[in-house]
Amino acid sequence: MANSEKEVAVIGAGVMGEALISALITYGISPSAITISEKRVERALELIERYKVSNAPLSQNVAKCDLILLVVKPQDVAGVLEELKADIRTGCLVISFVAGKQIRYIADLIGTSANPVIRVMPNTPTLVGAGMSAISCCGLVTDEQRDFVLGFLGAVGKVIEVDEDLQDAVTATSGSGPAYFFRFVEAMVEGAIALGLSQEDATTLTIQTIVGAAKLLDESGDTPTTLREKVTSPNGTTFAALNSFNDSDISGVVAKAMKAARDRSQELA
């Protein structure tokens, strides 16, 4: 089936749903083949105007689509699947972006063994085309379906495939990871202010430093270790700062935080 022939239902038209609509279009899906199901009239009109997609009631949308992007909150997924399961077509691919919910959970709620499910953990930089997603596929997923999902997610960042039992580790790494980064930026700004810089200058210096370092890491081809070593002179200023990090067991602190995120993800499953 050619990309343009797919009928896509996007269930959940929040910020991540919108980012995925943009990704589908970038990948080559015609806006006329994308239908959202959004009860908020103002939001639906906004997306129709911006992307030239359609809006339809959930049951009507699901009845005609080849694949469903499920982009709803975890607490809403059971109600949504209960509503659509009577109308879902045999073989229709369900791509779940629902945080923490396993493939088996989604399949059981649909109540049929005829619908392949792909579970995706995206992250918020997807909104600016720099996302990191990890997918896991059930046994019913075809190579064509898998390649399609890898393709359109690749239009808004990078994507890997992992065994589903590693999705909690992915959540702790790339799913929650942007917030770790933002918290570190907050701490750097606070540290700069404590050294006498103004809030404005501290923020400008920190953000541009972080953005530049990330760009260097992404584009230089060097490892984080190599880049760190290049900027660290023996007994210099950076050396002193990094020693302070090591004295505080930065690796242990980060590993403990990531384990806490992984454990909570497992609890929410």
Rg, please? 22 Å
CATH class of the largest domain: Alpha Beta
CATH-assigned homologous superfamily of the largest domain:
NAD(P)-binding Rossmann-like Domain
Q: Main β-sheet, in a few words? A: 8 strands, mixed
Describe this structure in words.
- The chain has 269 residues and is of the alpha/beta class.
- The protein has two domains: 3-167, NAD(P)-binding Rossmann-like Domain (Rossmann fold, 3-Layer(aba) Sandwich); 177-268, ProC C-terminal domain-like fold (Orthogonal Bundle), CATH 1.10.3730.
- Helix content is 54%, strand content 13%.
- It is built from twelve helices and eight strands.
- It has helices spanning 15-27, 41-51, 58-64, 77-84, 103-110, 143-154, 167-175, 177-194, 199-220, 224-230, 237-247, 250-268; strands spanning 8-11, 34-37, 54-55, 67-70, 93-96, 117-121, 131-137, 157-161.
- It has an eight-stranded mixed beta sheet with strand order 3-2-1-4-5-6-7-8, sandwiched between helices.
- Helix 1 links the parallel strand 1 (8-11) and strand 2.
- Helix 1 (15-27) crosses helix 6 (143-154), helix 7 crosses helix 12 and helix 8 (177-194) packs across helix 9 (199-220).
- It is elongated.
- It starts with 7 loop residues before the first strand and ends with a helix.
- The model has no long low-confidence stretch (mean pLDDT 94).
Give a brief rundown of this model.
This protein is an alpha/beta fold and 269 residues long. Helices cover 54% and strands 13% of the residues.
Provide the fold topology.
Elements: E1 8-11, H1 15-27, E2 34-37, H2 41-51, E3 54-55, H3 58-64, E4 67-70, H4 77-84, E5 93-96, H5 103-110, E6 117-121, E7 131-137, H6 143-154, E8 157-161, H7 167-175, H8 177-194, H9 199-220, H10 224-230, H11 237-247, H12 250-268
Parallel strand pairs: 1-2, 1-4, 2-3, 4-5, 5-6, 7-8
Antiparallel strand pairs: 6-7
Helix pairs in contact: 1-6, 7-12, 8-9
